[in-house]
Specification:
Layout: E1 4-8, H1 12-26, E2 29-34, E3 37-41, E4 48-52, E5 68-71, H2 75-87, E6 91-98, E7 103-109, E8 115-121
Parallel strand pairs: 1-4, 5-8
Antiparallel strand pairs: 2-3, 3-4, 6-7, 7-8
Length: 122
């Protein structure tokens, strides 16, 4: 249902390093790039993510209650994505671990403060 999501940045170069590292772990790369924005994913694949400077020229800000989740293949990949995020300038919002009986997840923020998650369901 979701084609892609975008999050804002005030430093595209810094943010690109963060998302390049996570995309590599997920087995995808940059699929589009233009002045002020980059998108990661696989054309024809699942939903992608874009990082962009706001079109209106104002400062990018974090949406309260907004989160983007990356679907991982297993718990070990959730752990790796969380570690990659922290090593790439992100901050921890919840260490990897079970959340209930069928959900394993880790929460983190990118260098601009956008909230993200890596998870396995089932």
């Amino acid at each position: 249902m979701i084609g892609y999501v975008t999050v804002g940045t005030n430093d595209l170069e810094r943010g690109a390093k963060f998302y390049d590292a996570i995309a590599a772990e997920l087995g995808v790369g940059r699929m589009m790039e233009w002045d002020g924005a980059i998108a990661w994913g696989a054309p024809g694949g699942g939903a992608g993510i874009g990082l962009t400077k706001p079109f209106d020229g104002n400062v990018a800000s974090v949406g309260n209650g907004v989160m983007v989740a990356f679907e991982a293949k297993d718990n070990a990949q959730v752990d790796r994505i969380h570690a990659i995020a922290l090593a790439s300038g992100g901050t921890c919002e919840g260490a990897p671990g079970p959340r209930g009986d069928t959900f394993y997840a880790a929460y983190f923020r990118d260098p601009d403060g956008n909230k993200l998650n890596a998870f396995v369901m089932g």
